[in-house]
Amino acid sequence: MSGNSFGKLFSVSTFGESHGPAIGCVIDGCPPGLPLSEADIQPELDRRRPGTSRHVTQRQEPDRVEILSGVYEGVTTGTPIALLIRNEDQRSKDYGNIADSFRPGHADYTYWHKYGVRDPRGGGRSSARLTAPVVGAGAIAKKWLLQQYGTVFKGCMSQLGDIAVPFESWEHVHNNPFFAASADAALIARMEDAMDELRRAGDSIGARIDVVAQNVPVGLGQPIYDKLDADIAFAMMGINAVKGVEIGAGFRSVEQKGSEHGDELTPDGFIGNNAGGVLGGISTGQDIAVSIAIKPTSSIRTPRRSIDKDGKPVTVETFGRHDPCVGIRATPIAEAMLALVLIDHALMHRAQCGDVRVHTPRIA
Amino acid sequence: MSGNSFGKLFSVSTFGESHGPAIGCVIDGCPPGLPLSEADIQPELDRRRPGTSRHVTQRQEPDRVEILSGVYEGVTTGTPIALLIRNEDQRSKDYGNIADSFRPGHADYTYWHKYGVRDPRGGGRSSARLTAPVVGAGAIAKKWLLQQYGTVFKGCMSQLGDIAVPFESWEHVHNNPFFAASADAALIARMEDAMDELRRAGDSIGARIDVVAQNVPVGLGQPIYDKLDADIAFAMMGINAVKGVEIGAGFRSVEQKGSEHGDELTPDGFIGNNAGGVLGGISTGQDIAVSIAIKPTSSIRTPRRSIDKDGKPVTVETFGRHDPCVGIRATPIAEAMLALVLIDHALMHRAQCGDVRVHTPRIA
Amino acid sequence: MSGNSFGKLFSVSTFGESHGPAIGCVIDGCPPGLPLSEADIQPELDRRRPGTSRHVTQRQEPDRVEILSGVYEGVTTGTPIALLIRNEDQRSKDYGNIADSFRPGHADYTYWHKYGVRDPRGGGRSSARLTAPVVGAGAIAKKWLLQQYGTVFKGCMSQLGDIAVPFESWEHVHNNPFFAASADAALIARMEDAMDELRRAGDSIGARIDVVAQNVPVGLGQPIYDKLDADIAFAMMGINAVKGVEIGAGFRSVEQKGSEHGDELTPDGFIGNNAGGVLGGISTGQDIAVSIAIKPTSSIRTPRRSIDKDGKPVTVETFGRHDPCVGIRATPIAEAMLALVLIDHALMHRAQCGDVRVHTPRIA
Amino acid sequence: MSGNSFGKLFSVSTFGESHGPAIGCVIDGCPPGLPLSEADIQPELDRRRPGTSRHVTQRQEPDRVEILSGVYEGVTTGTPIALLIRNEDQRSKDYGNIADSFRPGHADYTYWHKYGVRDPRGGGRSSARLTAPVVGAGAIAKKWLLQQYGTVFKGCMSQLGDIAVPFESWEHVHNNPFFAASADAALIARMEDAMDELRRAGDSIGARIDVVAQNVPVGLGQPIYDKLDADIAFAMMGINAVKGVEIGAGFRSVEQKGSEHGDELTPDGFIGNNAGGVLGGISTGQDIAVSIAIKPTSSIRTPRRSIDKDGKPVTVETFGRHDPCVGIRATPIAEAMLALVLIDHALMHRAQCGDVRVHTPRIA
């Protein structure tokens, strides 16, 4: 409850720093009887882990997960599931130069002023590395939701800097290093060129990521104030570097009229999905559709003005191994966060209302 | 913890339905010793209440607040503060026609499927009327934050449908019926015309609202995952009809480079505010800057296709008294939600780290 | 979450002071579809209310409850249920003499030092009057548990000062002013004499109360650390004036051998109930059996040494209307608290494990 | 929040099973700036660990603790502190015979019916081994409370079966294998004989443990319902095998008169401590005095009647390595739980009321 747990009934308490001995989490509230082993979790971690292409950080972390508890003879027992991932490729010296000054756009400044002490190695706890335990927990949530309701999660990058990536099909997402839902080779090449250019320039860039959940039961969400969409916004804005969140039509709603925005209903289901799958804070059975804005990485080689701990002006250039676009690896993270929100609300719904009443409404 | 409370340490538990006997809330965790009376709360409720111009619902609710507890001889005692607002102008018959069918874009459908029972009078608990208790609680939060840190809250409408409202000065916000930070009479007239036209057409429109908090202490926020910005996103997305939330540069971050986005620091403070006052989930001392997208009201006179409880096709037209743009009254609500997030994090910070270390950094 | 809420999933947030305008609570998480009206709640409040015999405080409070929300057409809707009880017979002048000094054994001293401000009228929030909203909430919990599982709650006074009250039958509890499970007229007369003597002497006395829940499903409780028995201990020790809690054999366990204490099992059920219905923090299906020690009232006419706010020695005599044995009215309170714990764990169980597997095991 | 976390602001989430790969916990909310290393924690674990005398289980567990996070250069950083203890001496075969039947007085029965699946090795999660992580967390709480307020914790066994152990002095506690606060060699010998006899007989026995906290600030506790004493009762009843909890005079209060029970105040402090350091749910500055009843171990060699999973009658005899009196090792556990309650309330107090007002009142 003190800030490092996520979720009320499927509660994930994370720990660890980028360059400490290990990172991990304790998952409390997983329903018993779910078949589970490391093999269910590792593939999701592998989608997120560094070093998979030249466009992401070259830190070599196998991110090998170990289940320490909560599973007996291959089945969850209902007791807490602890996940442990040892850090293996820490090069703390890479970061020595920023221990006493603050990178513009980075949490260095705020951690220092909040706590009066700061682990500067690799960003300490503010590192995007700390999304790994959440992705692990999300894998368990995904498995349960799939088994229970047939829910599936999909995500893609829909914009890289000023390059829009039109959606073609989910099947393309894993065929390129950007999670682009596109088979347009020229577009992918353009993205690669843009990334290569950035890397040479020592700069970074933002991105937009879209995630959806399909086959979501109707009725998930506590309408005020633990709304499903409010919790989704919380989860997404909590991902490192996210600065904006939209559900359904999002900011396009501003210019819409009511006669255009409200998704009409027919006996065959909803027509359209401006709602993004949530009305009044409760799931409708439409796809949950979320879009997030990810800012450019703050650790860049380009020299920038800043101050040191004593308030003296300094110039900061960040060396070390960083993602020039943290958005690239954000897709599996956003999927995991969405899964964690949904399982939590599924359990909350079951507590108050018993089993789900309406499962898969037909969608027109 | 069951869904109707907001905040962990300054915790607001609301109750009530649009046409029930009363609405209100219990505020738990207010620091003792704060001078407080109804006169501190009523003005904020008056900013939000219906019937103040022809552009909002004509329901006549005085929204008179009564403090039931937690205050002794004009000072808070540290015990729960209960706020009670009696409903006075319920015309339940206005809503009889929608008791058995679902308005497109409205929570009718989801409440019904979640609970199997629904109070259809005026939208029941899904009514925007339920933001009143939160505005009341927010008034208390604002008073404490002002006294403690000098924090102030400001908000305005920055877009109405396709009409952008350029920011001129906060002083204009209360001189027009739209919370526009503009003294441009032609612009205000254009907004009035647009609203009149919508009302005639029986339609509704969306809006964008901006809110800021100034003089925020450095260091508020629990970095993962109860980040300050995550909680702001939760609070804002939890306001009725909100579909998008941005902090600082928001979705503009997608196209920014790192060398452009990261706010540089000088001994005199930050240069710029792409961060929106939050880095790594912790406040920087810059203004907290938030922008939200509000969808058009779903209760409109325009006939629309829908279904009834039995899944049969119906045509729905909503009569009764509704805001043609719920965004108009959203500004004080968004300010209140932001204040509630900040006081909660201020208390949380005090718990773990003791008194605030850095209060008002000079901002360049 | 800030201290004035009870329960996680059936969460009761109370408010009010003894001599403020009103007391009450917000109940969040009640399952929808439960038939409910004030008539379900009032009888439980009447069992607890003052003025029912000469052995309890003569304050005349009708304790009339009003449901403000969460019920539509006689059925709970799943939204928060607010209960309001107006205070009617406050005579604040009765308490004026203790506004600046501290009654020995009373919360005066601690409230003052904690908050730096204190509502001294009738004990303010520390008054036993604040158990009324909880009894109201407990009535709803009882109704749901009865409907869902057939669970029933019973309680009695088993000791008044040094007078032991041997258990005969639950049917006698409502036939005497002490909640004694006895039809022994001589014993009841002895209790009446003892109380009359105390009242004359301006003194007070302690009591022991036993409560049981019957027909409890097997499996309720989160084993470490939200154990069912831990939450029962929390609930019971939270009742005003309680200084000790036992489950099952309680302190008799200290002298028991393992071969004597562990309740053997047969195909027909458990033999004995040293466990008090809980093993490893989870309900067994045996009766939940709890016993509590209630200290003597601290507000007595007998002069006692104390200090005032400035630390100066004073003599304190408390006039006004007080219960000479707060234990007398504690039985319905303890039942209510037990019901609140059980419904919370029933909902929590349903969240994680789905519907109850084993309902009513046969008990030998 | 799902049941395996303890504390709201200094929140300890534990994980692990008796015979799984590891046990441990994540401590969330520890204030930054506290000097900390494994050397602060290991001594408390050593006081609790098995194998230290012939009167406790002979399982050989070094209980070596590793800090995985939250500490940088020997100082806490304010981020979560993860503690890991690998299990080393699991002999799962010892327990094979009870995998399909239920030990009388043991959690076997309830875990099975709750979850439908159970880790039977060494009692799985219901093992007293799971108190080790809590003792580790308690060591950190103790260190902070000592540094901040001078608070110290002491505990002893005051009764072993029917052998009362009169309190002489805290200094004796560590000079005998029973945590007896006595230097009476004859008494200790009698206790040793009693234990030897029990072990030969294959039986077990209960015990009473007393713990106190000294130098506790005035004002800790949220009066209704997160009372300090309610949380202490929760914490104590949550320790394995505890069946009763008393604060101060406890069950002796039943026979006390008000004129006897209420601790009088003088300018030099309180006279007596019937309150046990808590009035109205808030600490008084007197010693916090708690007494608990611990039932006899349920795993005994003596044959007992039970049933198997199919409800068939069986005879159960438990072999393996068990404590014949779990009370012996309970003293450090009870101290740790008390420390965890106090730090949580200290932080909660700081959140709402700022720094402690009255620290160490002189006690007469």
TrEMBL record, chains A, B, C, D:
Molecular function in Gene Ontology: chorismate synthase activity
Catalytic activities: 5-O-(1-carboxyvinyl)-3-phosphoshikimate = chorismate + phosphate
Class of the enzyme per the UniProt entry, highest EC level: lyase
SUPFAM superfamilies according to UniProt: Chorismate synthase, AroC
Residue segments, region Disordered: 37-63
Residues involved in FMN binding: R125, S126, S127, N240, A241, G280, K295, P296, T297, S298, S299, R321
Pathway as given in its UniProt record: Metabolic intermediate biosynthesis; chorismate biosynthesis; chorismate from D-erythrose 4-phosphate and phosphoenolpyruvate: step 7/7
Residues engaged in binding NADP(+): R48, R54
Keyword Calcium: no
EC number(s) stated in the UniProt entry for this protein: 4.2.3.5
Keyword list, A-Z: Amino-acid biosynthesis, Aromatic amino acid biosynthesis, FAD, Flavoprotein, FMN, Lyase, NADP
Gene3D superfamilies: Chorismate synthase AroC
Family: Belongs to the chorismate synthase family.
Function as written in the Swiss-Prot or TrEMBL entry: This reaction introduces a second double bond into the aromatic ring system.
Assembly information from the UniProt record: Homotetramer.
Protein name in the entry: Chorismate synthase
Organism: Massilia agrisoli
